[in-house]
């Protein structure tokens, strides 16, 4: 399985943008980039996914490098409720399971 | 609508006992997944169901672990002769189809083996 590399933890101030990086230098052409997050004491929840183009939804934006070897999840205005572990995942089209790594623990400072 | 539900939310059992963990997926979701998360670790895939069949059991850690799904809905994960290393949060997820991009996770069952 293609792997991703994320920082173990990050801090950000409330109401500021947050950029969460992910490296995936061995990504293949059929791999989609997915992001999930896990709030304390909850199961993971889907955030966003993309293939080549940048993506936006109500939760976040996903910026994908032109060579697809890295990507960045952008939270435009962090709130305390965004404090969670964020997982960057590669998942081939029609893949069944999700292979989770260790993720980035995001701390939001009031 | 209702999300994925799991029961019990917490289970404490003695080493050597058998336990059953239940997952109710979102209605109409054909794909169902079991994961576990040990303390401070990421999520580990266990098994996947499409309908009632399990095409991928590759993540089950030993033959003490088994799972079934009946009626294309409820699934049960059974751990026989529990060991202390089985202590973890067991998470269930479902998706509309096996290749749907979004999996919906339940709140998990916290299993403690004493």
Largest interface: A-B, 22 and 26 residues
- The run of helices and strands of chain B is EEEEEEEEEEE
Largest sheet of chain A: 5 strands, mixed
Stretches with pLDDT under 50, minimum 5 residues of chain B: none
Strand content of chain A: over 45%
**What is the tally of helical segments of chain B?**
0
Helix and strand succession of chain A?
Answer: EEEEEEEEE
Sheet with most strands of chain B: 7 strands, mixed
Strand content of chain B: over 45%
Mean pLDDT of chain A: 92
* Estimated radius of gyration of chain B: 13 Å
How far apart the termini of chain A lie comes to 38 Å
Q: How many strand elements of chain A?
A: 9
Helix content of chain B: under 10%
- Give the distance, in angstroms, between the N- and C-terminal Cα atoms of chain B: 37 Å
Shape of chain B: globular
What class, by secondary structure content of chain A?
Answer: mainly beta
Query: Order of strands across the biggest sheet of chain A?
Result: 1-9-8-3-4
Give the class of chain B from helix and strand content and strand pairing: mainly beta
State Rg of chain A.
13 Å
Blueprint (SSEs and pairs):
The complex is a heterodimer of chains A (110) and B (114).
Chain A: E1 9-13, E2 18-23, E3 31-38, E4 45-50, E5 55-56, E6 61-64, E7 70-75, E8 84-92, E9 104-109
Parallel strand pairs in A: 1-9
Antiparallel strand pairs in A: 2-7, 3-4, 3-8, 5-6, 6-7, 8-9
Chain B: E1 5-7, E2 10-13, E3 19-24, E4 31-37, E5 43-50, E6 53-56, E7 65-69, E8 75-79, E9 88-95, E10 104-105, E11 109-113
Parallel strand pairs in B: 2-11
Antiparallel strand pairs in B: 1-3, 3-8, 4-5, 4-9, 5-6, 7-8, 9-10, 9-11
